[in-house]
Amino acid sequence: MAEDHFRYDLMVENALRGVVRDALRRAAEHGLPGNHHFYLTFKTRAPGVEIPHYLVERYPEEMTIVVQFQYWNLEVEDRRFSVMLSFNDVRERLVVPFEALSGFADPSVQFGLQFQDNASSSSGDPDPEPTPPDGGGDAPADGGSGEVVSLDHFRKKK
Prior knowledge:
This protein has 158 residues and is an alpha+beta fold. The chain has helices at 8-30, 53-58; strands at 38-43, 62-67, 71-76, 80-87, 90-97, 101-106, 111-114, 147-149.
């Protein structure tokens, strides 16, 4: 098999992170229409992540936040986004680089993306189930998890 010098797997993943970036930009500019809401799962210890220490202690690996009704100051840059959310009635600012994302979903339209850890792919569970934090939002009313797009079949087997 020929060596992939272009790393199409990384190009595809970067393009899909652009989908998340564009969705967040639309939400920041126009709000969330209808029943749209976002579940964003990220690695809490990834480089560039800025969250309160007590949240890192509570979620040492991954954390899922929900952008739905109670969020403030959503700002989207090319490489990261920031948002204020309420945790136990205290507003906290979170900064998350897009590279730290491991999942994105908009359950209102049953859409979801799952990202691989580019820093290390040695985790024992390739598809961990995200757990929303307290105060971060509610689960979808229909109990649906949305469609998850796995990028494994695009990846080079080692």
